[in-house]
Amino acid sequence: MVYGGKPSTGCKNCRKRKIKCDEQRPACTQCTNTDRICPGYAQLFDLVLRDQTESVTRKAQRRNKRDPRNVRATAAAEETPVTAVVAGRSEAQRPLGAFRTSSFPIASPTHSGHVLPLSLPRSFHDSPEQQAVNGFFVNYVLIRRHPYSRRGYLDCLLPLYQNARDDSLLSLATTAMALAIEGGSPSTAHYRKLSHSFFGRALVKTSRAIRDPIESVKDETLMSVLLLSFYERVLATSETKDISGVHDTGAVALVKHRGKENGKSEMSARLLLAVQTQVVDHCIQTASPFGKTSADLDSMRPDAFETAASRLTSLSAKLSDLTAYAYPILKNRAQFPSQEQLMSILDYAGDVEAQLSTWPDTVPDDWHWRPSHTFDSLPSQESKLYVYNRRVDIYHDIWVASIWNSYRGTMLMIQYLTLQSLGMLNPPPLSAFAYRIVTAINKVQELVDDICGSVPFNLGTKTFGGPSDRSEVRYPDDGIHKASSDYRKSAAGLGGWFIIDPLKIAAKAISLREGQQDWMLKQIERIQRIYTIKKPIECPTSEMPTPHCPGGRG
């Protein structure tokens, strides 16, 4: 049994006759027009995970006849049956003979948040786009995660994707995203070029869908727009381009258009949160105000759907408004800010910081990180490549670590604005403002240390090879249980993407320990190698602080 991708969902007659089925219920039009009895439709999950053992075995036998050297390998393999566990049910399979296969676990999320494992063989004879989709689902979508860390949307994708047609908007957007992500490996770099074709076709269908009164309110359409925005982010990061944000704007417009549809189900509520999170991140990066939009989106979310992740998103929206207010004042080269303007920025920053500072007190108990001594045995020189100051922290999962680093990045940007404003005020020693400078610098050091301590958890000892897990890569553990397969796959696939922005923010800090900034820049270069990011990632230290700031690099 293999994951053969998204098959035809037509009735059995149409599939056998290899004609297009309109999938009408209870009987399709093709059958009724030709006086045939419509046999109905197979279960979607059975179609996606369909048994191809017999056909593959026949191909292997034909190949063995042509090459006698394969007969011995096939006979030996047939002595050991492979078992696939599907929702607690075992089914013995015949092996795949001389074909090269690689087993990978597929997880099916349940309503309780648990995941049922499926151990399935993967064929390498599929088309590039199908291989990319297979890898995308296995390495990114079907991975266990803490239920309260969900502020994304990928784990909502499978049920929607299974019901989508091959040429649908969601199918095209998923394929484009999968090719872009899987193209991060040097051996599959050509996938990214192939992704442009699917992305272009998806854009055409998006334009039609958002103008259709029925399609525009569907979860599938909003999911597709989110995937296209994700695609743009991946390509922009890999080529160090600016993100246009057009899909983020479109997602917000769709959410507002959907109205009450946003709260009709858990999936709809989670898609709403994903839109809010994505737009907040974009507004912070571009210093654009989020303003009333944040409250509008908060009001659409059901009261029951409130988690630590959603609270952080709502609080972080306040930073986008702060930066939108402060940056035009602080970066105005034509006019130096007045004392009144600087004081207003400090008051604003202090208010936002006070609200954000309450967030760590609201997280679940198992979200707190703990030290790991996994890399203590490494030679000192090698350890310095992966670990800063011998600190290695482990988290519940890669998503929890990402949310913590999102919080730290937000707090760092507040400290930077505070230090800029205080530096321009140039307060006298021993004054209250001078004490606030020292406090902010100490806070910056603490936040940067926390980000550096999470780097081994995100990257392990990986230095190349793309988004796939590699057996020789070491990841931190608690000394009792080894790193799980789910964690290794998610770290290999997403760890670099999750940590790169926090590192870029942290690398701009002032008054750090000697060598710490250089270490962070080397980690960014490591991420660049892992995911084949084409151009160097620049982290100008002068972007946030100013030469007037005490302790700065004037």
Describe the structure.
With 554 residues, the protein is mainly α. Among the domains are: 12-125, no CATH class; 364-554, no CATH class. It contains 20 helices and 6 strands. The chain has helices at 12-17, 29-33, 44-48, 53-66, 69-78, 128-141, 157-162, 169-182, 190-209, 219-238, 246-258, 266-286, 292-300, 308-330, 339-356, 380-386, 398-425, 432-459, 485-506, 516-530, and strands at 82-86, 89-93, 101-109, 115-123, 370-371, 393-394. It has a two-stranded antiparallel ribbon with strand order 1-2. Strand 3 (101-109) and strand 4 form a beta hairpin. Helix 6 crosses helix 8 (169-182). The longest helix has 28 residues, at 398-425. The chain is globular. The model is unreliable at 1-6, 43-57, 67-124 and 541-554 (pLDDT under 50).
What best-fitting shape do the alpha-carbon axes yield?
globular
* Helical proportion, percent range: 40-55%
Main sheet: strands, sense, barrel: 2 strands, antiparallel
Number of helices: 20
SSE order, one letter for each helix or strand = HHHHHEEEEHHHHHHHHHHEHEHHHH
Strand-residue proportion: 5-15%
Strand order of the largest sheet: 1-2
What structural keywords apply?
554 residues; two-stranded antiparallel sheet; 20 helices; 6 strands; globular
